[in-house]
Write a structure and sequence with these properties.
alpha+beta; 4-stranded antiparallel sheet; Dihydrolipoamide Transferase; 4 domains; about 30% strand; OB fold (Dihydrolipoamide Acetyltransferase, E2P); 7-stranded mixed sheet; 10 helices
Length: about 500
């Protein structure tokens, strides 16, 4: 009798939960066959059978077990029963299998595992299966969408054959985790399975695996508006709900359901709408939540504030924005002024551009400025490389390029890694003042806010000026108060006298 105990799955993991038994008590299992899924606080792991034989379950699904604790036993004396039980099934499958219509099986199986998609990414979520169990797939055909905390990737088939899904939609897998298997075939094509699939779809009202299933972008829009996917008709391939479908449904549903919402009635009356709904957090949202909490717990974060008279920048921009657009083909915004001012100040106060590396402080002689971009999936922070060496038009063009790719969900991992300092602009949403949270491992972030006309005193007179509040959050372990305040004052000086940016003084 082989005893199966909880394996060691990581240094900091002391216990796991039996998430799901893939085999039942008393089943005959093969050696290395996956018999259960174990779930820790960090990832989900598969448990393979160390021996062949009859399974005896000790710990049921949902139970918690410590590392090294017994969870099941395998009776090796029953291993021979496996071949006896499977022989009739194999003969039956041979007699019923059409020889001329299906591709010829080679006996080989291709295991598809989670590829390495970026240095800092340790796990992904199976977002959407574009093919279903048993479908014939071709080499390099896109079969699924995989979502990390930073981007969504397409998963191409690694062989021709029949798809066997291992990880269902919503499953979180570590890098290298098994996603699916492909029973490799040769000769023949997808025509026979496709025909079968088409017949099945016809018998169920022309519905396919994608019918009524929203794309990631469409799902986000529907979630924000509180619209169920079942209320939307998909016009994409196989009835898939596209981004355009979600946008149209948002307008239609908004009008029809407005009278039902609690906010439309002055008082709560019998029959009033008081619905609640619960949704699983996306991989990106879970990662954002973890990072924000860890930043608050692991850094000595402080925020210093100042205000800037934006009139000089606004006057310069008004004077030259048309000629600037005509010459460079891109608009002249505020971001280029702030980026240039930040780069000058970072050179003068290098601690603000540094980061902790164990017991050392890593200083950068370049400025890779991260800009926060709000997207349908959440907040992303693409990086403008070597911003200190770029001109105003180059910065504006790069901001437009990265923001557009971010909102379309097409940013690569390289475009979101390696920033040394961040800028976030809450002013575009009307924020007057905020304390931005650090973007680790960076030591500082600058928060921009909305521009409001205020009465200020200049040269003994009360005048009205367009004022913006600036906030600099910084890690006090690296940056001292004197450096943080001096940095922000320097940014203020450069913005209130933009000629300094052009002359470099």
């Amino acid at each position: 009798m082989a005893q199966v105990k909880v394996p060691t799955v990581g240094e900091s993991i002391t216990e796991v939960t039996i998430a799901n038994w893939l085999k039942k008590d008393g089943d005959i299992v093969k050696m290395d066959e996956v018999i259960a899924e174990l779930e820790s606080d960090k990832a989900t792991f598969e448990l393979p059978a160390p021996k062949a034989g009859r399974l005896k379950i000790v710990k049921q699904s949902g139970a918690t077990a410590a590392i090294g604790e017994l969870i099941c036993e395998i009776d090796e004396s029953a291993a021979g029963e496996s071949s006896k039980e499977s022989a009739p099934a194999k003969e039956e499958s041979k007699s019923t299998e059409p020889k001329s219509e299906a591709p010829k099986a080679t006996g080989g199986v291709k295991e598809m595992k989670v590829p390495a998609v970026g240095e800092s990414i340790t796990e992904v979520t199976i977002s959407t299966w574009l093919k279903k169990e048993g479908d014939f797939v071709k080499l390099d055909e896109i079969i699924a969408e995989v979502e990390s905390d930073k981007a969504t990737f397409e998963l191409p088939a690694e062989a021709n054959g029949i798809l066997k899904i291992v990880a269902k939609e919503g499953t979180v897998l570590p890098i290298g985790g098994l996603i699916c298997k492909i029973e490799i075939t040769e000769g023949g094509s997808a025509s026979a399975p496709a025909t079968k699939t088409e017949k099945t779809a016809a018998s169920t009202g022309d519905k396919s695996y994608a019918s009524g299933h929203p794309s990631p972008a469409a799902g986000k829009i529907l979630d924000e508006k509180g619209i169920s996917a079942s209320q939307v008709s998909g016009t994409g391939v196989g009835g898939r709900i596209t981004k355009e479908d979600a946008s149209k449904a948002q307008q239609t549903s908004g009008k029809s359901e407005a009278p039902k919402t609690a906010a439309s009635a002055p008082v709560i009356i019998a029959g009033g709408g008081r619905n609640k709904r619960s949704e699983k957090m996306s991989s990106l949202r879970r990662t954002i939540a973890k990072r924000l909490v860890s930043v608050k717990n692991e850094t000595a974060m402080l925020t210093t504030f100042n205000e800037v008279d934006m009139k000089p920048v606004m006057d310069l921009r008004s004077r030259y924005k048309d000629k600037f657009k005509e010459k460079y083909g891109v608009g002249l915004g505020f971001m280029s002024f702030f980026t240039k001012a930040v780069c000058v100040a970072l050179k003068e106060f290098p601690a603000v551009n540094a980061q902790l590396n164990g017991d050392e402080i890593l200083y950068h002689d370049y400025c890779d400025v991260s800009i926060a971009v709000s997207t349908p999936r959440g907040l992303v922070v693409p990086v403008i490389r070597n911003a200190e060496s770029l001109s105003f038009d180059q910065i504006e063009a790069e901001v437009v390029r990265l923001a557009t790719k971010g909102r379309d969900g097409k940013l690569s991992i390289d475009e979101m890694q390696g920033g040394t300092f961040s800028i976030t602009n809450g002013g575009v949403f009307g924020s007057m003042l905020s304390t931005p949270i650090l973007n680790p491992p960076q030591s500082a972030i600058l928060g921009m806010h909305n521009i409001v006309e205020r009465a200020v005193v200049q040269k003994g007179e009360i005048v009205v000026r367009p004022i913006m509040y600036l906030a600099l959050s910084y890690d006090h372990r690296i940056v001292d108060g004197r450096e943080s305040v001096s940095f922000l004052v320097r940014v203020k000086e450069l913005l209130e006298d933009p000629g300094r940016l052009i002359l470099g003084v």
